[in-house]
Design goal:
This protein is mostly helical. Helix content is about 65%, strand content about 0%. It contains six helices and no strands. The longest helix has about 35 residues, at about 40-70. It is elongated. The mean pLDDT is about 90.
Length: about 120
């Protein structure tokens, strides 16, 4: 029986941990049956059990990261693993505010020599 990720998202952490323990016990029993010489159908169940465990762990990790993101949302700094990945160059690029800053010399030059306006005759 496969567990659906959507159903898992509605459960709280305690229920998920309980489900995880049950799934791990099921996997252990299937492995014992494999050693005892079970049928091919039981061997397939091992793959399903492993997938169920992975699904449960994924939901636990995703909800945990979501809660951490909410916690660090208004803070000055966020942990490295919660920051947006992007690329190294993009992370080091100037922000729009930094790009718009002008030197004193540039400000004086723009004030002294403004952009000329031309009237085009129709």
């Amino acid at each position: 029986m496969a567990v659906k990720a959507q159903e898992l998202r509605n459960k709280n952490k305690a229920e998920l941990v309980k489900l995880l323990d049950e799934a791990k016990q099921e996997l252990a029993s299937l492995r014992v049956q494999k050693v005892a010489g079970a049928s091919a159908a039981k061997l397939q169940e091992i793959g399903h059990a492993r997938r169920n465990i992975a699904r449960i762990l994924t939901v636990i990790n995703q909800t945990q990261r979501e809660q951490l993101r909410l916690f660090y949302q208004k803070k000055k700094f966020t942990p490295l693993d919660l920051r947006v990945k992007k690329t190294r160059a993009m992370r080091r690029a100037l922000t729009p505010f930094e790009q718009s800053k002008k030197t004193l010399k540039q400000q004086k030059k723009e004030q002294a020599f403004p952009q000329r306006k031309y009237a085009v005759k129709a």
